[in-house]
Amino acid sequence: MTAAAARDSRIPYPALVAGLTLLALTLCAVSAAVGYVPFDLGAAVSDWLAGRPTLGALVLAELRLPRALLGLLVGFSLGLTGAAMQGWLRNPLAEPGLVGVSSAAALGAVIVFYSGLSAALSLALPLGGMAGAAVAAGLLNLMAARGAGTTALVIGGIAINSLAGSLTALALNLAPNPYAALEIVFWLMGSLADRGTDQLWLVLPPMLAGWALCLSGARALDALTLGEDAARSLGFNLTGLRVRLIAGAALAVGSAVSITGAVGFVGLVAPHLMRPLAGARPGRLLLLAGLAGASLTLAADIAVRLLPTRPELKLGVVTALIGAPFLIALIARLRREEA
After folding, report:
1. Residue 100 contacts residue 160 (beta carbons within 8 Å)
2. CA dist 153 to 85, 188, 263, Å?
3. pTM of the predicted protein model
4. Residue 231 and residue 226: Cα distance in Å, rounded?
5. Contact 101, 137 (CB under 8 A)
6. pLDDT tens digits in sequence order for the chain, 339 residues long
7. Rounded to an integer, what distance in angstroms lies between the CA atom of residue 165 and that of residue 169?
8. Range 263-297 burial, b when 16+ CB lie within 10 A, else e
9. In this structure, how many other beta carbons lie within 10 angstroms of the beta carbon of residue 119?
């Protein structure tokens, strides 16, 4: 840890959590207020709380608020699981996509698109995404249950990621018409537009369960910084930790991807932004990275609506434009540190 990092880590942890929570909630309120049509947020909130069915109250309850809350939930899920994956694999380049969960969730949703189920059932798309994530998590948990080590699980995740990507490309190649292929491509770019309360309530329970599983591994992740043998000697079950983190990532990220499509790099960037503040303890980083991920996602979604472009930029495009240079700079810094 650098001297600056050591100094920053002296900031009280509760103050860090409180400050980031306030930032995320503020951005959530700004996200609810921002849109293409002029909107009196105060009047809409007043009407909504009073039960008056005005246009402003309906727009707030059915469009603006679900979008803002989904941005909060999706960003928290990506940031939290990114920190968990980096702590577990002890790899600063790890993120949920590395173990194939994100790609498998995207494949599940694409299959729903391809089969036409998305037009027949409004909740078919998120259910398809969660089913894809569950299959990936099941395969990884099967490998973990058979005693596969961290390296073997990473390789297995990369294989699942590649297979899911290939099958998604195959579905695009065999799309029955160009409109279906275009719809799939746009969905894969990631977006929070036109999401409603149905999707919000559908993904909330699995996300909460995924968060609980990841956060329950905080102490074990701290012990893992001493090495696997030392962590086992302290009484931590590392196989159980793997199962919990993989299942947690599948539930949280699979739910997020099934609703928004692919929103990359948040799980990579958020932990690195918070690591100097959290110090050398991966367990402390989990909650901070989740809140930072929520803030990043909400800020990117606000930017999407403020940028003067039509049609609206996709959220995944904006996060990729931010995350790709960050990844290049991170790799360059790691190479300098290793030299």
Report:
1. yes
2. 12, 26, 23
3. 0.87
4. 7
5. yes
6. 444 444 455 678 899 999 999 999 999 999 988 877 777 778 888 888 888 888 888 888 888 899 999 999 999 999 999 999 888 887 787 777 777 888 888 888 888 877 777 777 767 777 787 788 878 877 877 777 776 666 777 788 888 888 988 998 888 888 777 777 787 788 788 888 888 888 888 889 989 999 999 999 999 999 988 888 888 898 898 888 888 888 888 888 888 888 888 888 898 899 999 988 887 789 999 999 999 999 999 999 999 888 887 777 888 888 888 888 887 887 788 778 766
7. 6
8. bbbbbbbbbbbbbebbbebbbbbbbbbbbbbbbbb
9. 11
Which amino acid does the sequence have at 202? Answer: L
Structure tokens at 30: 């700004």
Token pair 């369960």: residue: 209
| Cα 68–Cα 74–Cα 77 angle in degrees, nearest 5 | 140
Residue type present at position 270: A
Q: Count the Cβ atoms, other than its own, within 10 Å of residue 125.
A: 23
3-state secondary structure the chain: CCHHHHHHCCCCHHHHHHHHHHHHHHHHHHHHHCCCCCCCHHHHHHHHHHCCCCHHHHHHHHHHHHHHHHHHHHHHHHHHHHHHHHHHHCCCCCCHHHHCHHHHHHHHHHHHHHHCHHHHCCCHHHHHHHHHHHHHHHHHHHHHHCCCCHHHHHHHHHHHHHHHHHHHHHHHHCCCCHHHHHHHHHHHCCCCCCCCHHHHHHHHHHHHHHHHHHHCCHHHHHHHCCCHHHHHHCCCCHHHHHHHHHHHHHHHHHHHHHHHCCCCCHHHHHHHHHHHHHCCCHHHHHHHHHHHHHHHHHHHHHHHHHCCCCCCCCHHHHHHHHHHHHHHHHHHHHHHHHC
